[in-house]
Specification:
Elements (H helix, E strand, L loop, with lengths): L5 H4 L11 E5 L2 E4 L4 E4 L2 H4 L8 H11 L13 H13 L4 E6 L2 H16 L5 E5 L8 H6 L3 H4 L9 E4 L4 H6 L5 E6 L13 H14 L2 E5 L23 E4 L10 E6 H4 L15 H17 L1 H17 L4 E7 L2 E6 L1 H6 L2 H10 L2 E2 L1 E4 L2 E4 L7 H17 L2
Parallel strand pairs: 3-13, 5-6, 5-7, 7-8, 8-9
Antiparallel strand pairs: 1-2, 2-3, 4-10, 9-10, 11-12, 12-15, 14-15
Helix pairs in contact: 3-11, 4-11, 11-12, 12-15
The structure holds pyridoxal-5'-phosphate (PLP).
Pyridoxal-5'-phosphate binds next to helix 5.
Length: 393
Amino acid sequence: MSLSSFDDVIMSNYATPPVTFVRGSGSELFDDTGKRYIDMLGGLAVTSLGHSHPRIADAIAQQSRTLLHVSNLFGTEPHLEVAERLNRLIDSGPGKVLFQNSGAEANEGAIKLARKFNGRGRHVVVSAFRSFHGRTMATLAATGQPEKHEPFQPLPEGFRHAQWGDVEAFDAALDETVGAILVEPLQGEGGVNEADSAFFGGLRAMCDERGMLLIFDEVQTGLARTGEWFGFQHYGIQPDIVTMAKALGNGVPIGAVWARDDVAAAFKPGDHGSTFGGQPLAASAAREVLRVMEEMDAPAVVRERGEALRRRLDALDGIESIRGLGLLLAATLTAEVLEQRSAADVNAALLENGVVANAVNPTSLRFAPAFTISDAELDEVVGILARILENGS
Ligand SMILES: *Cc1c(COP(=O)(O)O)cnc(C)c1O
C-alpha cells in the first residue's frame, strides 16, 4: 500500500509540513530523503534528553512487555516514583500529584481543582495577555490571545486577562469571584516573554491576601528547561498548583498537576478522571526521564548549555537582542535583517540548511534544544544562522 499525501488525509489545522522526519538521535534528525538536521526546537521543548535516548527507549520497551494499561480503577507502580520525585523537585512543601495526558489537560485539571477547592461563586481565573494555556475550550478561554478565541465563541465563562508583568493590572482584575491566578513563569508560545520577581512576588502577595490560588503553568518551562527544576524557582516564591507536560515523557504524552496537600484534598473520588492519565507506559517513560535528569543535574547542565548558546547568538551581527532563560531562548532579529525578511523567512532558510528552529513571532526565532546539545552542534547551527543573516540563504 502506498502512503496517502498529508493533505488528503490530515485536517488542515496545521500548515502542510515542509519536511517529513523518519528518525532522530540525540540532537540530530533525519528526513525521508536521508538529509540530516540539527534539532534546536526539541519538538517544542519536549525532547529535552534528545531523540532515541537509550535509557528512555529501554524503559518504554520493557514496560510494553510488562504492563501497558489497566485503567485508574486499579493500582499500578511506575507513576508513584514519578509523583515522589516531582514532590521533591517542586520543593514547596507537602503536595500530591494528578496525572493527565497533555498540557491542556493538566491545566484543565488545575482549573477544575481550583474551582472545587474554592467553591461556587469563586470560580474566575485571571491569566495574562499573550499567555498560552492550551487548546481545549477552558484552556483556550484561559489563553490570553483574543484572536484565538474568536472562531470558537462562546467559550466557557469565568476567565479574565490582565497585562503580563503588571501587578496593578492583575489587582484591578480582581473581585470576590476570582479564585485563582494562572501564569507561566516565562511565556513560551506567546513569544518567550519574561517577567520579574517583583511581578511574581506581587501575585503571590495578592493571592495570600485574598486567599486565592497561584497556579503556575510549567507545561513548557518545567523539568529544568529554564535552568531551575521549575521556572517559579527563579523568583523565590512558592506556588499552590503547578502543571507540567511537555518534557515529562521526553516525547511520550503525559501531563501532571501538582498541588499543595490541602488544595489537592479538594478532589474526592469521582470528581475528576482520565482513562489514560498516569498509565504505566507513559509513567515509566517519565520515571526514567526524571531519573536521568536528576543523575545529570539537569538544571546545572541547562544553565551551562544555555550560556553556551546565548554567547554564540550574542556574537552575531543580525541579532538585536536575546531573551529567555536557560535553554528556552528567543533571538530578535535586527531592523536591517527584518527589512529584507521576516523571522519566518529566516526560519525557513534554517530548515533548508538543516537546522530545525521556530519563528515564535514575526521578529524573533525560538530555540529549545535538547540539554545534551554539543558545542560542535551549536557552532554548526550558529555558523549556518550567521550565513543566512548575512546573505539570506
Ligand atoms: C504547550 C503548552 C500547553 C498545551 O500543552 P498541550 O500538550 O499541547 O495540550 C499549555 N501551556 C503551555 C505553557 C504550553 O507551552
